[in-house]
Amino acid sequence: MLVDLVTDDGVTGHAYTFCYRPSGARAIAAHLAEAFDLLASRPVTPYDAARSLSRQFALIGVTGTVRMALSLFDMALWDALARSREMPLAALLGSQPRALQAYDSRGLGLMEPDRLSKEADALLASGLKAVKLRLGYPSAKEDISALKAVRRVVGDSVAVMADYNQALTAAEAIARGRQLENEGIYWFEEPIPHEDYDALSTMARELRVPVQIGENFNGPEGMLAALSAQACDYVMPDVARIGGVSGWMQAAALAAAKGVEMSSHLMPEVSAQLLSATPTAHWLEYVDWADALLQEPLRIVDGRALTSQYPGSGIVWDEDKIRRLEAI
């Protein structure tokens, strides 16, 4: 979903997110339209808008598609504010756009080892020093085989993050985690259902490999609950679920207070701006999926992602590209 938020002084803020299901897109669009109507013709700032809208939607719950809609609204509002000040978003947040360490998350799904090897070799062309591998095959043996197929291609100098997308039971996750930690994975991501903080806390204590969660945190409150339960070693919120830019900065303060490294999930253009202003910034998740829509895609140079120096969040639509896609 692409969002344009037009202010009365002629500045337009942009944002986008992945809605996962067509029904999710329709729900988010409806919530967004209502949020706009609630604030139209009023002077607003991002934090004031977030507080007001959270109250307005409280009775149906600020979660799921409501949280994503309000996050998108917040992202577009911050983009408009940064553009009106002619500043990159990172600078508006008190930092400077930076070159960030990033991992390549554009492939390496569940497939046979030969295909994994070929895809891993293609990803090396980006120059990034880390890749994400999706695991969760029917057996631990198959997981190890997939990991070895990738490792043979990328070598020991490239980090490999293992992502299970909540595929395992708690007992199986501990068993596989103990095998994988001997294979040199960088982190063990979302091995079980994301909200089971008790089981994740046990995993974080018992495994040597760091446990990574966060893309499903519902606002900063969700991240606070995970950190309080010691359910992970690292966190990686999604800007469209953590509460937009406003929610991200609150989450970044929590991570800083706990001394926990914080990475991003998807939407690398705006996430790069936010990580630039995050005290415990760790890894940017790099995908190029929005390049088909943007005038200035995020650039990778010398193995690092270059945060945009232009005013705003780094999102500027290429209307010609969008029209061609709409015609398909």
Would you tell me the overall average pLDDT?
Answer: 97
Radius of gyration: 20 Å
Number of helices: 13
Inertia-based shape: globular
Strand order of the largest sheet: 4-5-6-7-8
Strand composition percent: 5-15%
Alpha-beta classification: alpha/beta
Could you estimate the helical fraction of the residues in percent?
A: 40-55%
Low-pLDDT stretches are none
Number of strands: 11
Report the biggest beta sheet as strand number plus sense, adding barrel if it closes: 5 strands, parallel
Termini, distance in Å? 16 Å
Oligomeric state: single chain
Please provide the ordered H/E string of secondary-structure elements: EEHHHHEHEHEHEHEHEHHHEEEH
Structure description:
The protein is α/β, with parallel strands linked by helices. The protein has 13 helices and eleven strands. β7 (211-213), α9 and β8 form a beta-alpha-beta unit. α9 (219-228) runs parallel beside α11 (244-258). The longest helix has 21 residues, at 64-84. The two termini are 16 Å apart.
Keywords:
13 helices, globular, four-stranded mixed sheet, 328 residues, five-stranded parallel sheet
What is shown here, in short?
This protein has helices at residues 22-39, 46-56, 64-84, 89-92, 113-123, 140-154, 170-180, 197-206, 219-228, 239-242, 244-258, 268-276, 319-326; strands at residues 2-6, 12-16, 99-104, 130-134, 159-163, 188-189, 211-213, 234-235, 284-286, 299-301, 304-306.
Topology:
Layout: E1 2-6, E2 12-16, H1 22-39, H2 46-56, H3 64-84, H4 89-92, E3 99-104, H5 113-123, E4 130-134, H6 140-154, E5 159-163, H7 170-180, E6 188-189, H8 197-206, E7 211-213, H9 219-228, E8 234-235, H10 239-242, H11 244-258, H12 268-276, E9 284-286, E10 299-301, E11 304-306, H13 319-326
Parallel strand pairs: 3-9, 4-5, 5-6, 6-7, 7-8
Antiparallel strand pairs: 1-2, 3-11, 10-11
